[in-house]
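User: Can you predict the 3D structure for this chain?
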Amino acid sequence: MAGSDSAISRGLQSHSASLDLDCSAEEAFALLCAVEKWPVWLSFLRSARRSQGDRELSVGSEVVVRSWLPGDEEELYEVDGLIANHRLSLVGAFSVRRRFEFRIESRTTNSKLHVRLSYPAYHGRLGTLLDRWQRGRRVASALDDSLVHFKGLVEYRRDDAVLADF
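Assistant: Here is the predicted structure, written as structure tokens:
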């Protein structure tokens, strides 16, 4: 599921994961755009909110995120890429090296979600290696778990016969 792409850029930690979904790309993208629900399925986030209130996400929209990832407690991100039902990309407002990228592949009856998370690792090669050892596995594991949570949320159907007894 997950992979670490730390060799992409010196001093940059990057983690990616992907997962097949049993839903349409439209359903998956609708959940991606529900920023306030991100902490429900993105386990490394404590909170997420749009800074402009209930406005629909568009290029230039600002999202305030609080996480346990390296960096400040609360960080401002800006939507820098949005293709409806396909791609959502956010970049840190004060550090272009902080990035969330979500991509959805549409297939005939299902879809596939790809997520990439990037953040800076400071103090040169040693700092990058230390960060990979201390946090890298934890972040990669959290990203894998997050996609499983996303899958559960987007595929849940209350009227399924399997759940009729509950």
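The longest strand covers residues 12-21. The two ends are 31 Å apart (CA to CA).
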